[in-house]
Write a structure and sequence with these properties.
- The complex is a heterodimer.
- Chain A is mostly helical.
- Chain A has one domain: Arp2/3 complex 21 kDa subunit ARPC3 (Orthogonal Bundle), CATH 1.10.1760.20.
- Helix content of chain A is 69%, strand content 0%.
- Chain A is built from 6 helices and no strands.
- In chain A, helix 1 crosses helix 3.
- The longest helix of chain A is centred in the last third of the chain and has 25 residues.
- By secondary structure, chain B is an alpha+beta fold.
- Chain B is elongated.
- The chains are: A mainly alpha, B alpha+beta.
- At the A-B interface, helix 5 and helix 6 of A face helix 1 of B.
- Chain A: It holds the Pfam family Hpre_diP_synt_I.
- Chain A: Keywords: Membrane, Transmembrane, Transmembrane helix.
- Chain A: This is Gx transporter family protein.
């Protein structure tokens, strides 16, 4: 038997990202199963995972987990490369950039709740902009902005609280599954 | 509340900022103005124009018969139409500026307008 030319070494970090991404994908599926009165208004439960990962393992890991979640989630739900995929990608990208910046805020004053709300607003903001620029080039897109913004505030706060509780309940040494 | 323990001082600030943002975007719900008038057209000509104030029924004669339009405060609809497919009747209440119900066979249309004119189509 010849030795394999390329050797893939799987690090502990890889395993951790895979586990966390799995958790995020699962929550995406739960999210999709929750009936929504309006397309675009949904809890975004997977962002709880993103927040926990960001605070515990750093921004780079959060980007990996989120990226894999969008990719695997869209494949499982069947909207890969459909408009919804690009909406999700834009929202996720903007909220990750926002999280990267917001992480620099003093932790004593701004906790997971702040990060979650800011990310939620960035998410819906990015989606609305992409929808306006690409999918529906008409200002009528912005008609329901208040509804989306209110949803971002409410769900952002709730997800932030859940993330804060998860972080408080699980000691830092144990890798979160 | 034990959940309150997870909210840090700055978080309240962000929440207030978010609420303010929601408040600021609230007028977007009314862009295009409120529904104020209903314009009824027959064969392309303005047949009648009403403020969406008090209740009234309007009978509009057309080539097939009478199209019955109901006006209420803030909304209007086609109640009955002699057309075969009843699209304009099934459209139900029209309550936003720019909305229009067209009963093509009888050549009657009901359009809602607001303070500012909105366009139903644009071409470049």
């Amino acid at each position: 038997m010849t030795a394999s030319v390329t050797e893939l070494t799987i690090t502990a970090e890889d395993r951790r990202v895979a586990w966390l991404a799995t958790a995020a994908v699962t929550l995406s599926l739960v999210d999709a199963a929750i009936p929504s009165p309006l397309p675009g208004v949904k809890p975004g439960l997977a962002n709880i995972v993103t927040l926990v990962v960001l605070i515990r393992y750093g921004w780079a890991t959060a980007v990996w987990v989120s990226g894999l979640r969008v990719l695997a989630g869209s494949l499982l739900l069947g909207y890969f490369l459909a408009p919804g995929f690009f909406l999700a990608l834009t929202g996720t990208t903007l909220s990750l950039l926002t999280l990267g910046l917001a992480r620099q805020l003093p932790g004593r004053w701004f906790g997971p709740v702040s990060l979650s709300i800011l990310a939620a607003f960035a998410h819906i903001g990015g989606q609305l902009l992409l929808a306006r620029l690409w999918l529906i080039p008409h200002n009528g897109v912005f008609l329901l902005t208040p509804v989306f913004a209110a949803a971002a505030l409410v769900f952002g706060t709730i997800n932030g609280l859940i993330a804060a509780k998860l972080l408080a309940d699980t000691p830092a040494a144990e890798p979160a599954r | 509340m034990r959940w309150l323990a997870y909210v840090r001082p700055g978080d309240w600030l962000v929440m207030a900022g978010g609420a303010a943002l929601v408040g600021l975007t609230l007028p977007m719900l009314w862009q295009g103005g409120f529904a104020e008038r209903a314009i009824i057209r027959q064969d392309g000509q303005v047949f009648a124009e009403f403020e969406l104030g008090s209740r009234r029924d309007v009978a509009v004669p057309g080539p097939l018969g009478i199209t019955l339009v109901a006006i209420e405060s803030g909304r209007a609809r086609v109640v009955a139409d002699p057309g075969p497919r009843q699209y304009c009747v099934r459209q139900g209440w029209l309550a936003r500026p720019g909305e229009i119900a067209i009963c093509a066979p009888n050549r009657v249309s009901v359009q809602i307008t607001g303070r500012t004119r909105t366009y139903d189509s644009l071409s470049y």
